[in-house]
Write a structure and sequence with these properties.
Blueprint lengths: L7 E9 L2 E6 L3 E6 L13 E7 L2 E7 H5 L11 E7 L2 E7 L1 E9 L3 E2 L14 E6 L4 E5 L1 H4 L2 H14 L3
Parallel strand pairs: 2-11, 5-7
Antiparallel strand pairs: 1-2, 1-8, 3-6, 4-5, 6-7, 9-10, 10-11
Length: 162
C-alpha cells in the first residue's frame, strides 16, 4: 500500500513585527507598495480604508491591528498584500514581504497550545517548521467576520467611482 504523498503548500511569506506569516499563494492576487489610502468613517479600527487598484476599489486592513500584535513603523518595505477568497478582494498592510516558498505538509502542524505567538489562535491554520524558524500560517477566512466583510463590501460599493 502506498503511503499518501505529503501535500505541498506554496506560501507567500511576510512579516509583522517579530512574527513571520504565510498565506497560500493561490489566495494572493498581487503585492503592491503602500499607496494612498482613503479613510472610511465608522469602519472598525483595523480597517485603514480603501485604495483604487487599476480601477477596482479594494478595502485595506492593517493586519497588525487586526491580529493585535505590534507592527513596525511604515517605511520603504511596507507592502499591501492583495488577497482574494470567498469572492472578496482585500488588501492587508504588512511590514515586509520576504519570499515565496514551498512547504511540505510533513512540516506543518496544527496549532499546539504551547506555541508562543501573540496572534489569537482562531486566525491560525497551522504552524510551518523551517530549519531555523517557525511560520504562522494564516487562515484568511477568519481574519474578517461575516459582519466585518459586509461592512467592507458596503463601504467599497459606496466608494465606487461613478
Amino acid at each position: 500500500m502506498d503511503k499518501e504523498k505529503p501535500k505541498e503548500y506554496q506560501l507567500v511569506v511576510f512579516s509583522i513585527g517579530n512574527e513571520e506569516f504565510g498565506v497560500d499563494i493561490a489566495q494572493v492576487r498581487e503585492i503592491v507598495r503602500l499607496i494612498s489610502i482613503t479613510y472610511l468613517p465608522k469602519a472598525p479600527a483595523f480597517i485603514e480604508g480603501v485604495v483604487n487598484l487599476r480601477g477596482q476599489v479594494v478595502a485595506v486592513i492593517d493586519l497588525a491591528k487586526r491580529l493585535s500584535i505590534p507592527g513596525a513603523a511604515r517605511g520603504e518595505s511596507t507592502r499591501i498584500v492583495v488577497v482574494e477568497f470567498d469572492g472578496l478582494t482585500m488588501g492587508m498592510i504588512v511590514d515586509s514581504v520576504s519570499e515565496v516558498l514551498r512547504l511540505s505538509s510533513d512540516n506543518v502542524e496544527e496549532v499546539p497550545s504551547v506555541i508562543e505567538t501573540e496572534v489569537q489562535e482562531h486566525f491560525i491554520s497551522g504552524v510551518g517548521k523551517l530549519k531555523d524558524r517557525l511560520l504562522v500560517l494564516l487562515n484568511l477566512k477568519q481574519v474578517l467576520t461575516s459582519e466585518e466583510i459586509r461592512h467592507v463590501e458596503k463601504a467599497v460599493v459606496n466608494q465606487k467611482p461613478e
